[in-house]
Fold:
Amino acid sequence: MTEHLVTFEPFATLVRVPTGTLLSEAAHLAGVEIGQPCGGQGRCGRCTVLVKAGAVRRRSTLRLSSEDIAQGYALACQSVVEGDVSVYVPPQEKIERRLTTDRTAGEVEVPAGYNPLLSQSLRRYRLMLAPPSIDDQTDDWSRLQLAFKQEAGIEEMKVSLSTLRKIGDILREDDWRVTAIVDTETWDCPNCPPRLIDLRPGHAMLNDPVWGAAIDIGTTTVSLWLVDLVTGQVQAQVAEYNGQIARGEDVISRIIFAGKNGGSDQMRSLVLETINQLVETACKRVNARPDEVVRATIAGNSTMMHLLLGIPASNIRLAPFITAVNHVPSLTAEEIGLAIHPQASVDCLPGVASYVGADISAGVYSSGLGDTEKLTLFLDVGTNGEMVLGTREWLVTCACSAGPAFEGAGVLHGMRATKGAIEEVWINNHTYEPTYRVISSVKARGFCGSGLISLLAEMFLTGIVDKGGNVNLSLNTPRTREGEHGPEYVVVWGADSADGKDIVITRVDIDNLLRAKASIYAGFTILADSVGIPLEAVEQVLIGGSFGKYINVEKAVQIGLLPDMPWDRFSFLGNTSVRGAYYALLDKDAREKIREIAVRMTYIELSADNTFYDAFISAMFLPHTDLSRFPSVEATLSTA
Amino acid sequence: MTEHLVTFEPFATLVRVPTGTLLSEAAHLAGVEIGQPCGGQGRCGRCTVLVKAGAVRRRSTLRLSSEDIAQGYALACQSVVEGDVSVYVPPQEKIERRLTTDRTAGEVEVPAGYNPLLSQSLRRYRLMLAPPSIDDQTDDWSRLQLAFKQEAGIEEMKVSLSTLRKIGDILREDDWRVTAIVDTETWDCPNCPPRLIDLRPGHAMLNDPVWGAAIDIGTTTVSLWLVDLVTGQVQAQVAEYNGQIARGEDVISRIIFAGKNGGSDQMRSLVLETINQLVETACKRVNARPDEVVRATIAGNSTMMHLLLGIPASNIRLAPFITAVNHVPSLTAEEIGLAIHPQASVDCLPGVASYVGADISAGVYSSGLGDTEKLTLFLDVGTNGEMVLGTREWLVTCACSAGPAFEGAGVLHGMRATKGAIEEVWINNHTYEPTYRVISSVKARGFCGSGLISLLAEMFLTGIVDKGGNVNLSLNTPRTREGEHGPEYVVVWGADSADGKDIVITRVDIDNLLRAKASIYAGFTILADSVGIPLEAVEQVLIGGSFGKYINVEKAVQIGLLPDMPWDRFSFLGNTSVRGAYYALLDKDAREKIREIAVRMTYIELSADNTFYDAFISAMFLPHTDLSRFPSVEATLSTA
Structure:
């Protein structure tokens, strides 16, 4: 097999690979990180590299202009090595770490009347053992069991091999005085004996914290709240991008990646690294050690849960869309690979179906939908859009693949909501000149989701695009023009942009945005139709997910993403998933209610529903084929 | 830090180490294996190497003659590098693999009336699941649980993460037909739900075997019986030296080694390698795959059990001699590291105390002592000597450290019972010329245990040694002489030996043998005294352990190792420990009886017993200070 030398600049990293190797694989082998948000499918163009010398064969040039190709650009995920090659890797969009910080920590209220003795199954015991002697050669473990029996009335106790490995030293370190943390009850095995989680030398003080972690694994962001289970207080809140992002931006790309050889292990490690790093950061903030965290609850969509646990997720993607497990059994941190106490009980909250996971069960509980009499629409928009309609009496749910457009991916100049992202746009309806606001007030680099919603709404209201999303090229402005990818509108001229190039929105981008918003709106329609209730009857719309924190309701209604109703019916709840995990961490009754919610939600599979397709097509217009559904937009248009 | 180059011949292996590094460590770093039966304490002399050039400092020269030292020999475990060194490693005694083979396989009878439905908690189910569809998106695990409920009446089931990782593929491989093996009962958690052990695509045939393994971990030999749990038949018996031997020949050396940095992990890996190799060999013999073995029971002394499980054993060695755990909880193969089915239930049988382990609980059960009305002495002599006295009504037990002398270690020309070992000796009482039998009839290389017992008895009966073990140098024979290590008797002249050197037994060797036999005999005495029964009242002596298979009762009585009683009271049972593990593997009632035996044995700690020391000193003579205890020997002497 012929081998070739691939050189990566500016790293000056060399690697030798056989003919036919993908440049992205060569980069991986060389330890050069090249982001592949679309999972290596040639869709996103984020892995563009410049071939300076040598032979590569391009399998696909989707996302590259003919000019790009002429200059030597190639998609690393779509180009194979055919000779010695020298490749230049352009500076990647540097992911800025946008942390949810302590500023919201104070906002989390401990549930009224929290009493760990009633709500928790964890107990902390301080034991004093009789030392052994020649006349009493009882083995260490039996001696400890005897102390549990005498001092805590516990007749039988489960213990792990890893604890037995440490027991001898721990018992002797502080002269047979120890503090033990015991889980007296396992939610999925009520008849099982109590389980010894932690054993430490010496006697803990009564007020010493007992740490727990509530975790939400989002496709994009992982959030963790560190909680003192003695008081119930959230002592640290941290968040970080999910380390899997570089291997695919949406769940489908990640499932595909995980299905490749070694992909599942890589996915598992990546998200574990993210979580374990968050644990460390949070623990540092409160002066605790990670192995003092003795309980965790985890929420997340079904794909994230499968990937975390190393369970193949491929059947989630393929009809008839089946998860391996919705109700994950009780596990230990050691089994999962979480770097907290190895014996910590880890509770992966229950999901409903392939595309309605534990994040939604947790969100429905924490948002209060599970317990309200008002007809409520709960919406969690991330890379996927999940929605639940109902009251305390009934719940229907569905999910639609919005795609990553609202998160800045799948759009030519899309980017995440970091420094340099245009987050709001206004367009003069005579001159068609735009005004915009950029995050951190620097030179613009692209659009984030809220910027795109805002831009699309303005273009529609000013007639730059028609209701079908077609760009009007006959307007008296140089900003609408025929570009490399078809008709486009220039928001920022090269002279004003960060990289000196025009920042535009193209017809293709608009199509992606239309598809995303149409898919979400069609979801609402189907949900309402499924129970024979008009959308207008909805008394409140609860919006969860980090997406909800930045969205402009008015603009979202104008493009037909959100239903047209008085703005005061919309509430933004932030991360409802991690909040649900927090409640479940504190209270076994809350855990049980989340399970009940998961069981009683009726899931509607949209891919099997022809009416969804009709609703989707009807919603592929601005704001909708049926303008009467959007009276406020109709009114605005008539005055425009 | 100064570094030096150490060269090992004949391997021509180089390694660079700092000043002060032990030669044994340097060898280890260089990948050169040097046996250290005594655990690197300079006691056994097996790591002798020849320093051909360069500077080493000898910390201890125990076991080396001044001539050896003059020639450049050094103990690798006791010599530190002080400059560049060139070392020659002499050919090590090559361990010949003496396997307990199929010849005894036929001897094992399945317990009468074995019925797996009554005796086993394992069940095999053949399930047919309804395939999922868009209208039935139940997750895989819930779907399987439903089948268990409908077809087997199992309401709740425990499952491991590793099984959940495979469930999706297995269910789909043969069109939703699967065979499951379920453990319906865990001995240490009677209220726990059944546990799913194995899930395979397709339907097994009714007569297909369900494999289990009974394992005995001896300090010297590991034995494994592979059993078809459907019929109860032992289908393969295999045995192999414990891979830990090179790190110490007795339990004390191993505990010391395990206490060193990384030693515990090394000990664990070594014994796991041995067991896993045995599993593979046995499985090959019956055309099974190791992952088809779904249950195992393990017996072994307390140190072996701790080392297998990676539990520190140091407190076993130190007063007041405490084990970390005698009743090991139910574990899975995955947790232990056994290369059988990862979810196989592994039952480590219960031990009694630091020096009376699960091998004795299992031996007492399988020997029938636990259920006899006859006053019985059960004896298991290996590197340690454990003994139990009693009837079905009561049991007392003790252990004494016999040392490895009877296994050929701690004796100048001692060796294992392999090719070239002298196993029987006769001495002419006029000429003092010996006749001897060598294993495999080749030139003699040394003495194994039975050879040493035989030799000592003959020397005593012919007056070459007196009752104190002193060699009579005034006899008219060149075979008794003053040697390097004091007085000695030459059994084989160099001209007739394998390596051309005289094979001798020295005064020091005799002392070691006396100590070993005295310690065992003193154990009997204390046991009998502790219940106020004379030794002569014992109605049967059951001898377990591989040692028992080769011993010559007459000679053993003559040196005072075994009590003097009619030979027909002695029975040799072979490996009673693996047999007990086999019974426990087959039958949960047998398992429970072994537990009861472990609990009801009264352990006598000899080190805390002054009378033991007195009894030991009295037994340090041939056959004993009190000759009246050995009437048959007295009779022989009077006729000699």
Remarks:
- Chain B touches chain A through 51 residues (CB under 8 Å).
- The first helix of chain B runs from residue 23 to 30.
- The longest strand of chain B covers residues 48-58.
- The CA atoms of residues 419 and 440 of chain B lie 5 Å apart.
